[in-house]
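If you are new to this repository, start here. Below is one unmodified record pulled from the training split, so you can see the exact layout before writing a loader.
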Amino acid sequence: MKLVCSQAELNASLQLVSRAVAGRPTHPVLANVLLTADAGTGRLSLTGFDLSLGIQTSLSAAVHSSGAITLPARLFGEIVARMPSDSPISLSCDDGSEQVELTSASGSYQMRGMPAEDFPELPLAQAGTPIRLDPEVLIKGLRATLFASSGDEAKQLLTGVHLGLDEQGLECAATDGHRLAVLQLQNSADGESQLDVTVPARSLRELERLLSSRGGSDPVSLFCDRGQVVFQWADQVLTSRSLDGTYPNYRQLIPESFARSLKLDRRGLLGALERVAVLADQHNNVVKLSSDPAAGQLAISADAQDVGSGSEAIAAEVEGDPIQIAFNVRYVLEGLKAMAAERVELQCNAPTTPVVLTPLDDSAFTYLVMPVQIRQ
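And here is the target side for that same chain:
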């Protein structure tokens, strides 16, 4: 294998695929990046794969002879990152040898790799017709839901985001058992296909990051087969296992009607909650919300035993009887930060039933939070 390529492009590609390299590999080759040079296409392909998440990208290169080798991701990445950006990098490896030579204007480095044959094959389940997704729609859906997925590996299915596609569009949903985020979106790229899959949040965070950094309007092709999902766009591929099991029927958690409603300025509510959260953090993260229909106000308070207490009041359009309800402040803050609206509506029925937060100008996003029971 022998090629010359740009330091900047190689460095960027390495940083990208390294995110799929195993931190604690079960086999030495999983700590490596696979390099495949193709003289026919004039491309150098890089792949990182930890058996759960795989990322592949390619860059243009002057390939004098084709070949493939794996190199230690961390060491290779650190050497390339420190090479001068204004000098091309040449990479050479004799047939049958595992010794790779890297040369740039600053000097040359020798590295020992491992054979490409030892690297596990990326499960590219690209059979059948792909489902096409609008990248902007997908990014929006992931940003609105990823934060609500569970970090508890014991709740296997809840550590992912559920993606559903039908003639109405794309629906993204995530829940950790305490809160639920659902966003319905129009998907202009494909109005025909059906999709019903749950993908690990870790894989989708990487997908959101890759799509956001790339830009462009090329549709994302999604292939889904035998427990694997493959997202492909431009010269990049992300592959992930899907999560087994039937995702909870989250629609039935959302109440059909509400006895109480509060319309509030989102930034005002966010600011008051962040200030009161300083005290809530000292104890149990719980804040109390008390509505006052007569005064047109919502009071927000926290009481940290042996530390102190605090309260603020903000203007609100209140409908229904007064109510006092308590929440984990982190859950409410994260939901509000996922919205961009000027005003939000908080709807509820009783102090122990789910509360639903929605942006007033966007009925497509629903955020449900379970209240905390207050000991009187």
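Two things worth knowing about this chain: The first strand starts at residue 2 and ends at 5. The chain has six helices and 27 strands.
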